[in-house]
Amino acid sequence: MTRIKFQQSLDDLKEKLLVMAGMAEQAIQRSIEAYRTRDMSICELVFRSEPAINRLEREIDQMALDLLAMEQPMAIDLRFILSVIRINADLERVGDQAVNIAVRVREMGAFANYDLPVDIPKLASLSAAMVRKALQAFIEADAELAQAVLALDDQVDDMNDAAFYALSTLIGEKPELTPQSLNALIIARNLERVGDHATNIAEDVIFWVRGADVRHNTTPA
Q1: Cα separation of 12 and 16, whole Å?
Q2: CA 210 to CA 221: how far, in whole Å?
Q3: 64 pLDDT exceeds 50?
């Protein structure tokens, strides 16, 4: 394969991953809209999107593996393909978190709506913003922007901790609200995991661009 054709294959791989990113982002947005409105029809849309996301994950992995096998890339090209494989897995898991949230929303629908002392939409907004920024860093090969995403993870963790405290207190004060509170706790945890996946994506961008492994709080090069 000539360099021109190889570069086109890399571009095609990147484009396919961005399609995957769009589907995962849409699934999260829909799950939170379902939480906000308690609209079960939106939950169904999330459930229906899962097979397509899973299928696309397999296609991207196969494209990446084929390039590794046929071209034996080196240096930044090799890091790019390895990063795509890892980002692809994280995006698939973002889709899984959306499905998990939709399951909890469906369970909450069996109970009367109560104004729980937790701002799930705000937590969702921050988690989704992390994913968008991490993907923007990927699109622009911007390691500095990816580094900025890592700093946001502590905010998401703090909001998740605050949700745990508030809902645990509510369960103690109003045991009759235990089912709704437990479901909201799990949704907060799902969103915290979305933030973790965004962090992973940002770390992979840094690895691709700088060749530095910053996982596990390793200082970037």
Answers
A1: 6
A2: 7
A3: yes
